[in-house]
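Anyone opening a protein record will find just a pair of labelled lines. The record below illustrates this layout.
***
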Amino acid sequence: MTATSDREALGTLLRHVLEVLDGDVAAVYADLDLPDYRPRYSPLVRVLVADGPLAIRDLAARVGVTHSAASQTVAQMARAGLVVLAPGADARQRIVTLTDRARALLPVVEAEWAATTTAMRRLDAELPVPLADELYAVLAALRRRPLRDRIADTGLAPTRPA
């Protein structure tokens, strides 16, 4: 196996960019004396503030993540005392509600969100294309033709046991 350039290891590069961005936002929360608050919590908190208690599936849809990702984040938030879970109308459903602790943090969460939005706009001004615009363009292209199909177009045939 040969060493690959950063341009060939795109998945690694994307994960690294996300780690850098999330790491910096997490450092801001630590500076604000909230070391156990994770950047991934804010989109869920903002939806719960706007829409009230929701089933995990509905929360996932509104945030734009998988049910599994939302469920994992909600579990972390519950351990941090930011949400509570209650049974829904369906036995499989769990309703997520913000705790008083989470509501007390809202001014800091909203201030960080606004500051990060401003900082990202300034970062976008330094880029050839705003980052979110490019990522939405990538998602649209992959919806039109998934990467799996594009890989198959190269002639790579899957090997399956007989």
User: Anything to note?
Assistant: The longest strand covers residues 83-87.
